[in-house]
């Protein structure tokens, strides 16, 4: 689904250039903008308000769709925009930084907890594996921001993903940020889509418990998700 | 959301950001240590009536000014690495300033 926005001055110039470059490269055929920088688009498209933004921008990559993509050298594109690579020597993850602003990639982690980074050769990047990330690729939106388009997760998918991962976070600050974002997302949720996403999940007791715990924290009735 | 909760959230995000900046700074310094210092210079030399370009890297080591000959084949790579060093130095400055600012805020809260 595509939404055309009336305003084009949603992002600061640096981020606008970055998104424009990624759009022109074809990245959004397999990637999504996620994290706090998706909220300015949610605000315009769905009237969801969440003001806090971080100094990093996250993109999710759908590994399953990569086979159909022509290789893109993202590292080269970022270097041309003035970003330098920064290796996290603890995890081996490569990130890209410019004036203290970081670009990071995320991929779905199917189960193996030991992997702290994944190489995505077709894009010449490394990414952080995150559990349940496949959820956010359900019903994505394409947002048309005048001269470029950005693909983002639908609020319902992001909501469910955040409910689950919030309880798995080792960092209290990250958990609170996840839950705070969930609370902000409530106003823009469509019940039918939410149910579809929940029904599509192969949910074990641990995941179910995590969702209910998060719902209780943000005062969202779990029965609205079909959970009791 | 209550003001107290929001304050806690912001405080958490600020301390996360401080930690992130410190981690990145360590990585940036490590990258910088692998890049050459100094500036590239070129002299024109005459030998047996022919003109030659002589490239050399000028840098300081233990307080002394040093010159190191750079073969023509390595000049382009060196230019790239010197440029990268400048970018890393700029980035380190950015992170150092931000860390100082975040530490100041953290101490005040």
TL;DR of this structure?
The complex is a heterodimer of chains A (228) and B (109). Chain A has helices spanning 13-25, 39-46, 74-80, 155-166, 172-185, 191-200, 205-217, and strands at residues 2-4, 31-34, 56-61, 84-88, 93-98, 101-108, 118-120, 125-130, 141-145, 148-152.
SSE-based structural type of chain B: alpha+beta
Shape of chain B: rod-shaped
Helix content of chain B: 55-70%
Counting DSSP H or I runs of 4 or more residues, the number of helices of chain B is 2
Rounded mean pLDDT score of chain B: 89
**Low-confidence runs of at least 5 consecutive residues of chain B:** none
How many domain regions of chain B? 1
Question: What is the first-to-last residue Cα distance of chain A?
Answer: 32 Å
Q: How would you spell out the order of helices and strands of chain B?
A: HEEEH
Beta-strand residue fraction of chain A = 15-25%
**Number of H/I helices of chain A:** 7
Reading the helices and strands of chain A in chain order gives EHEHEHEEEEEEEHHHH
Percentage of residues assigned to helices of chain A: 25-40%
Describe the biggest sheet of chain B?
A: 3 strands, antiparallel
What summary fits the major beta sheet of chain A? 7 strands, mixed
Q: Pair with the most extensive interface?
A: A-B, 26 and 26 residues
Distance between the amino and carboxyl termini of chain B? 20 Å
* Gyration radius over CA of chain B: 23 Å
